[in-house]
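Q: Is it fine to ask for two folds in a single conversation?
A: Yes, each is treated on its own. Send the first.
Q: Here.
A: Result:
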Amino acid sequence: MREDIVIIGGGLAGSEAAWQAANRGAKVTLYEMRPKEQTAAHKTGYLAELVCSNSLGSGELQSAPGLLKEEMRRLGSLIIKVANDVRVPAGAALAVDRDLFAQKITQALEGHPNIRILREPVSEVPPDCLAIVATGPLTSDALAEHLKRLTNATHLYFYDSISPIVDADSIDMSKVFKASRYNKGDADYLNCPMTEAEYDAFHQAMLAAEKVVPKEFEKIPYFEGCIPIEVMAERGRDTMMFGPMKPVGLVDPRTNARPYAVVQLRMENRHGTCYNLVGFQTKLTYGAQKRVFRMIPGLENTEFLRYGSVHRNTFVNAPTLLRDTLQLKSAGRIFLAGQLVGVEGYTEAAATGGLAGINAARGLQGQELVVPPETTSHGALLKYITTSDSKHFQPMNTNYGLFPPLPTRIRDKQERQRRVGQRALEDFAAWIQRSGLS
């Protein structure tokens, strides 16, 4: 085995992985194909170039994204340090000067004595080393073919088709009923019934709602199994009722009749703290989603933990393929990180890169690998991507719905989130101490 860790991909995840591994004494070889080979989205040869927004999301500690950033800061994150150094005014969000951000990340990695950067494409993972693959949504065709062989082609996806997720506590349970179609199995779904008038109003709102216009590199073909809900609406008044909103096999126990139409909500995690709108993958803008989907009975005041989307991506079915250490189950010497593992967002990608870098360094040095507690922001995200229902797995951003509930129920949302955050930071500090990561 080689004495260095090979990291493929110099985006946010690969950059953070290299920094964390190198700072723990490991020799790192970081491969980045740019600028020798550019992607359809990147403009420079800098590492950690931001290709879309220049915002890394909320920096407030009482928010789930802010909590993740604080945990990363406590691990010595390069991404968070540089982001704070080059931040620009953006209210509560951590937004950065994108050029300075990428430049400073590149300079830091180039100047690290344990890091060697090779500007060349990699078509497959070398067979004689510990490796971290962090190539992101624009993974090259050659490496994607190699990943197919590593992971089994049926577990590698090249676009995501995401339905919104809502906070369970924000659903009006007086307007929904629990049932599965034809009473098959347990009553696992929450059903939001609609009258004909409610359905017609909803259909008209879908037609008028604002849609996201994809960039050229984000355009993907639609397959019948993942058609956006607004595209169904455009195909005709009744199309949604023959798709995800079909009421067949469902009887509202309060009326003892079949509703005109139904929106089904499926439990998204084992804690039952968040629910997925089944079949509602969408390219509506976030504002349009919030407005239109709150027309659904029971969701009038719902809190969205994740909005829906359909876009170009490359990710694996992490619950099937990954250990909670981010190693492949079938090949422990290979770690995956970033959007490849099924996380959404800059910060989430960097956070998984950091964990992969820490564990790869520990593996190289013969130390026990570590996994943060699920009560922490890092741990809750890992728990989701490695233990979710593999049949319905889709990428996820960090949110409070992923955290285990508190031992005592707290109705006030702000106080509940404050307590969850306090517990997370206390448990994270204890984990750092006992893992020897401080």
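Q: Second one now.
A: Result:
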Amino acid sequence: MKERRRPANSRRRFLLAAGGVAAVLAFEPADATVAEMSDAMRKVVGGAPVAKGRVTLELPPLVDNGNTVALTVRVDSPMTARDHVKTIHVFTEKNPQPNVATFRLGPRAGRASVATRIRLADTQTVVALCEMSDGTFCSGSADVVVTLAACLEEL
């Protein structure tokens, strides 16, 4: 009985094609875009206007390693029962997910300030969007230069 042999050429072609696709996907950045960041922000505010100001972002202007970047967000608010910050959202334009963090505050927080560390995929703009107790929104932004990127998702 003769043994059927598959042509090795088709198997090689398949392996080369699969390897090529894997290589492209592995090196393709999984960054969000400015449009995706805007869409994520629009989901938070709906159609409400966003006033620039009242929000201060403290980030180092130059970061050697994007794996751990210190971030402080301060909002000019008296933090009283009638006038306080309800939510602080942090967005980035080039991370895999544009909404990096959400903090919920109330008047008992005493001050409208949060500090954390975030990962940054590349040089980009970081935006903090705050919802006030009266339903209005305000924002602030800061640019950061990252020399060694983080947030590179592997397959």
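Q: Anything structural to flag on that second result?
A: Two points. Residues 8-27 form the longest helix (20 residues). The CA atoms of residues 39 and 66 lie 24 Å apart.
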